[in-house]
Amino acid sequence: MVEKTRAELTAALKDCEILTVPYRERGYHLSLDVDRRKLLTVAGFFDERNFYLATIICVDYREYLEIVYFFSHHQFLCRAKVTHKLDPKEPVAPTISSVFDSASWYEREIHEFFGVRFEGHPNMTYLFLHEGIDAYPLRKEKAPVTEEDRALLGSFKPEEGEDTFFVNLGPQHPSTHGVLRVVLKMDGEYIESAEPVLGYLHRMHEKMAENRSFLQFLPNTGRMDYLGAMSFNLGYVTAVERLCGIPVPARAEYVRVIATELNRISSHLLWVGAYLADLGALTPFLYVFDDREQILDILEGITGSRLTYCYFRFGGLYNDVDDNFIGGTKAFIARMRSRFGLYENLVANNVIFINRTKNIGIIEKERARKYGVSGPVLRGAGIPMDIRKTEPYAAYGEMDFDVPTGARGDALDMYHVRVREMENSLKIIEQALKGLPEGPIMTEKAPKKLKPPKGDMYHVVETPRGELGIYIVSDETDKPWRMKWRVPSFSNLMIFPELAKGNMLADAVAILGSLDLVIPEIDR
Amino acid sequence: MDQLIAIFSREPIKTVAGLLGVLIFVVVNALLLTWAERKVAGRMQRRIGPKEVGPFGLIQPIADALKLLGKEILTPRQVEKPLYYLAPTLVFIPVLVSFVVIPFDASLQVRDINVGILVILAFSSLSVLSILFAGWGSNNKYALIGSIRSVAQNVAYEIPLLLSLLPIIMMTNSLSLKEIVEAQKNGWFVFWQPLAFIIYFIAGVAETNRTPFDLPEAESELVAGYHTEYSGMRFALFFLAEYTNIFIVSAIAVTFFLGGYQGPFLPGIVWFLIKSYLLVFVIIWLRWTFPRVRFDQLLNFSWKVLIPLTFINLLVTGGLLKL
Q1: Chain B residues touching residue A353 (CB < 8 angstroms)
Q2: Rounded CA gap, A184 and A164, in Å?
Q3: N or C, which end of chain A has less CB nearby within 10 Å?
Q4: What is the pTM of this model?
Q5: Each residue's pLDDT tens digit in chain A (524 positions)?
Q6: CATH superfamily of A2-152
Q7: Is the CB of B221 inside 8 Å of chain A's CB atoms?
Q8: What's the complex ipTM?
Q9: Do A174 and B218 touch (CB under 8 A)?
Q10: A520 burial level (CB within 10 Å; 0-12, 13-18, 19+)
Q11: Does any domain span residue B253?
């Protein structure tokens, strides 16, 4: 499919050089640099062929700013990098939010971090930053905020209409599970429009990454998604290993899979409890915490922590697993399997629960693609895409598991997809335990000081919430020149205003819950 | 002793003593129920519940009440003062009046009025007024939405509540609660009117704003609904009223369907309390089991299911009585 896409792209663009890139080292197949006129043509080309826009990244190379677009496909493995160079003095680029809805927020993000103006963007306001900011934080040389942008900072002021009023869902609100603020424009009980306001937990992890070595940044990764810290760790560690070509022993790969899947189950369990609490059922929360506790105990034994893990190292693991861990995991598998029936009876068959979630917040396949949603939300919408299958990392290539999908794309499907994902995670853990090889857990060739080759790399992993993409630009030092995190909750939240429109307030809570958002991951 | 009884039989003294007794019962009942709620919830959620303060944590509600009493009485700046102050007081009046006519035992009733059930129903509709006052007076959007929901909900569920009690009144030809209890000497009405009992119970749970019908205070949507802006003792009054309401709903169910204070061996009041608290337990049980329904589903359920069913039930009862 890569060759076919390349040929079609060549035909469509004519005078453009399309490079084929070694996928194993770089994480993408095709690379092309386009000018301003061609950008929309390229976006349209990928849109017609049902690609989705994974992310938009901006990199400051001092001489020029480069906007990087990554297009991927749900059905087959083909990732294309499209770049567009800008003048750092007057950075202006055309928007592609008319083609891909997901571009809208990424462009706003680049606008406030780099000062790039996107012409034709419908809502070029600030997403994360507050009024006190005086420069574009990710620019390599200090660039003061322009007067025009200063007016946009904190410009968000809801206006009440004749029959409508505003309700703030957050930033301190029981159902947003963190400091997300959604401004709902209500007409009685019905929502006319919803506008998420982010940035209450913004810590600028991407800037931090530029100021510390690869290893020093490792603990930060667990702080982004505190519920799926293991997946974020694994994503970062495998990305750096891929960049620097560090081999990993087989035993470490297997243990990584076990630990990550345990963490995935604990994340999904917490979601089940929190989601039902959103719907007003408070008891399941305690039940899932009981199960989750077992996982935390198991992981505490090998990692030393219970929430924000930092267990993996470049080239292996922090320490080896013991019999306690293996025995405990086996006992947990048996216990967890016996619990699914209980959840089925208590939760999934409850008529109130079904009434509250069935046909609520339906995500059509096309809309899911346009917004670039991923993970259980995408699979709930009926697209069987799982990065553990399509681009296996760690030892996932040797595991046999299913990718559950939903039929309707509503909140009930999201529930069933996540529960079945837990069952599959148990299956993976069981296989990994059975096939766990003996041997070292740390490669002997791990360098003390990392010397990554010059260039860029895009690496994706499947976290409990979906596609995590890590884009690293290296300048041959032990610190990355630029590191961008494409986080799944950010894309999944983007679709929320569309879903909430016209629904009732109670549905908004049900929909927001079904997306399984982790706010520190969105804000980074 | 006879003298004492004679003194207490005199009307004014009897009424005053009865009202005092009711006040004490309301407070004790609310304290007991908060404890029971937490204990039952704890057991249902695989934990223990309160156990540190007093034996089995029995003193816990008193400690909580003292804490609430000790809190500074905050009045937010934007509130509509008269309504805001009035609401927590007003919420208590219908609750107290209902107790006056409930027969705890054959002789233990403050006043046997021949329109007893009408008094209860009329006054319990008043409680929605105080919720509306609270929501409107708080000048807060969450509170306002909560109170508007509450009005719609109470209007919708008042009707099946009333209609489900009508067949009993037709069967006994009386509105006096005592006579209704006496009419159940040979068999509880729940066996004659099982449908009416179920409908009454559902509507009753909805009237008390409890899960799965706790939309006015749905914490995941409205933070705390109509009492968002209330704290300290004012909040405690709403809380007290809620628990008293639960007991009243159960007590009326017992009076109408479960033979009231009648039962073998034990004194009447014991039977009455056992039956009532069993129903209270069921209401607590429901809360810790079910999710919350949505607003339109809630109203649809009343208008499209419960009300037609009560009408059918009424027709069938009327027809059978005529035969």
Answers
A1: 291
A2: 10
A3: N
A4: 0.84
A5: 777 777 777 777 777 777 788 888 888 888 888 888 888 888 888 888 888 888 899 888 888 888 899 988 888 888 888 888 888 888 888 888 888 888 888 888 888 888 888 888 888 788 887 777 788 888 888 878 777 777 777 656 666 666 777 887 777 776 667 788 888 888 877 888 888 888 888 888 888 888 888 888 888 888 888 888 888 989 999 988 888 888 888 888 888 899 999 999 999 999 988 888 888 888 888 888 888 888 898 888 888 888 888 888 888 888 888 888 888 898 999 988 888 888 888 888 888 888 888 888 888 888 888 888 888 888 888 888 888 888 888 888 888 888 888 888 888 888 889 998 999 999 899 888 888 888 888 887 777 778 888 888 899 998 988 889 899 988 888 888 888 888 888 888 888 888 888 888 888 888 888 888 888 888 88
A6: NADH:ubiquinone oxidoreductase Nqo5 subunit (3.30.460.80)
A7: yes
A8: 0.77
A9: no
A10: buried
A11: yes
* Interface check B18 vs A, CB under 8 A: no
- Half-sphere exposure for B59 (CA within 13 Å, toward CB): 6
Structural contact between residues B139 and B215, judged by C-beta atoms closer than 8 angstroms: no
CA B207 to the chain's CA centroid: 8
- In whole angstroms, give the CA distance from residue A483 to residue B217: 45
C-alpha dihedral sign at B58, B60, B63, B65: negative
B293 and A352 within 8 Å at the Cβ level: the answer is yes
Q: Which residues of A touch B297 (CB under 8 A)?
A: 355-356
Place of tokens 């399309």: A18
With CA atoms as reference, report the closest residue to A348 among A292, A264, A418: A418
Q: Determine the distance in angstroms separating the CA of B151 from the nearest CA of chain A, rounded to an integer.
A: 14
Domain assignment of residue B66, yes or no: no
Task: Tell me, yes or no, whether B98 lies in a domain.
Answer: yes
How close B246 comes to chain A (CA, Å)? 19
HSE toward the beta carbon, residue A259, CA cutoff 13 A: 35
Tell me how far the alpha carbon of residue A165 is from its chain's centroid.
Answer: 33
Owning domain of residue B230: 80-322
Which two tokens mark B224?
């705390």
State the nearest Cα–Cα gap between B32 and chain A, in angstroms: 22
CB contact under 8 A, B45 and A287: yes
In Å, the largest CA–CA distance within chain A is 71
Phi, psi of B157 (to 5 degrees): -95, -15
| C-alpha span between B62 and B128 (Å, rounded) | 28
Strand order across the beta sheet in which A455-463 lies: A455-463, A466-474, A480-486
Which residues in A lie closer than 8 A to residue B212 (C-beta atoms)?
280, 352
Distance of residue B116 Cα from the nearest chain A Cα, in angstroms: 36
Q: How far apart are CA B109 and CA B105, in angstroms?
A: 7
Q: Does A274 touch chain B (CB under 8 A)?
A: no
Q: Which of A175, A282, A504 sits opposite B296 (nearest CB)?
A: A504
CB A237 within 8 A of CB B252: no
Q: What are the residue boundaries of the structural domains of chain A, listed by start?
A: 2-152, 205-523
| Helices first, then strands: H and E counts in chain A | 20, 15
- Residue A279 and residue B291: Cβ atoms within 8 Å? yes
- Tokens matching residue B256: 């109408």
Q: By the CB < 8 Å criterion, does A244 face chain B?
A: no
The CATH number of the domain covering residues in A205-523: 1.10.645.10
The number of folded domains in chain B is: 1
Interface of B with A in 276-295 (CB under 8 A): 288-295
User: Is position B240 within any domain?
Assistant: yes
The verdict on A505 touching B (C-beta cutoff 8 Å) is yes
Any residues with CB less than 8 A from the CB of A465 and at least 6 apart, and which?
A225, A228, A267, A374, A375, A376, A488, A489, A492, A516, A517, A518, A521
Check if B185 contacts A (Cβ < 8 Å): no
Q: How many CB atoms sit inside 10 A of residue B194's CB?
A: 12
